[in-house]
Amino acid sequence: MAVPKLKRAERDKFILEAVILEAVKAPRGTRDVLGDETWKWAYVSEICRNVADDYGYREVHLPIFEHTELFARGVGDTTDIVEKEMYTFTDKGGRSITLRPELTASMVRSYIENEMNKGPQPAKLWGIGPMFRYERPQKGRYRQFVQMDMEALGAQDPLVDLEVIDFSMEIYRRLGLSNLQVVLNSVGCPKCRPVYRKALQEYLKSRYDDLCDTCKSRYDRNPLRILDCKSPICKEITENAPAVMEHLCPECAEHFDRLMRGLDKIGAKVVLDKRLVRGLDYYTKTAYEILSGDLGSQNAVCGGGRYDNLAEAIGGPHVPGVGFASGIERVILTMEAQGCSFGRKPENKVYVVAAEPSARLDAMALMRTLRMNRISADMDYMGRSMKSQMKNAASTALYACILGTSEIEKGVVTFKDLSAKTQEELTPEQIINKLK
């Protein structure tokens, strides 16, 4: 904030006013989702819930913050998320706490802590809620964002990988999305990845000086992440780099082959991409994304894969797992770009109009009767004239119920269809039956 040259008292006042003004704004990278939009979020969430039910996944609600160590050890201390993007603080007990940047590590923690291994396997879990990452805000990406997350824990079978990919595609199919592409790779496992890591480093050695500074720091610590770099020079350098596929151990090769045969069996169209390594260290074997052609550079609406060693990384037993996550903001942006339906926008069915002030209590009683019969209704609380009330009714409701002295005396209501511009006198019971 640039402070102009002012006298001290004026300068202090200027700074105070600027601080107050900043305090009543949402922090950078966050946004208010208001009533004109939240119905779209509810629609997407409901579709996710329906698909999860059909696939046998059960909803869980996990803490928004966890011990920092869970993400440092699980996500990987060489990832951008842990190094640059986590919101971490020390609580009053001196513990390091982090607002969750993703949900998979929390899902695995919950699986171990709640001994889900004692139930049917795999344990199929899903959740939806806010995540937090400190990164540059851009279209479809915020510092607080909402993500849906689906995980299958406890099974090694590649058919579970197949189900997870099919699950994610089914969500988007029901949402009406098109122009989507499944991009797939295998990132190996601790047996074969060191061999590939060495081959990749050998390939990059002669071009090390040309790498961007970030990728130079990755060369020794996490060279696979260089494949994912968006820098044009790094992309050019890795264009002919060896592929992970060429270095898979027999177990990983067999796993990937069975997955590909399964995808072919269900008619799924996929594209293989040797650059796809995802941004998290815990992935093993399967890694995939679903891309949209309608979002520009930030075009991934979904990302996931297998993470068989995550549970051990956070101090638990061996628990194979596979899952995916999808940002609600990007899904909605894609749906809007493609003109998808969000279902019917919520609106009041009835607006109750008090023709004169003395009828307001009767109007309130009628409105309550309608609501008790599951008919959405509203009325004026600002003491507006009947003309103004009718204007509000026309902009917010389908029907108007008008109550004045004559209607109250006769025990009826003037019921007006605001679109057809017709009206009739009906009893409250008749109105309820008509609207139901």
Q: Can you walk me through this structure?
A:
- The protein contains 16 helices and 16 strands.
- The chain has helices at 8-23, 35-55, 68-74, 80-85, 104-113, 158-175, 193-205, 213-221, 232-237, 250-265, 310-313, 328-338, 360-372, 386-396, 405-410, 428-435, and strands spanning 58-59, 65-67, 87-90, 96-99, 123-132, 144-153, 180-186, 270-272, 286-292, 300-306, 321-327, 348-354, 377-379, 397-403, 413-417, 422-426.
- An 8-stranded mixed beta sheet has the order 1-5-6-11-10-9-7-8, with helices on both faces.
- The longest helix is centred in the N-terminal third of the chain and has 21 residues, at 35-55.
- The radius of gyration is 28 Å and the shape is elongated.
- The model has no long low-confidence stretch (mean pLDDT 91).
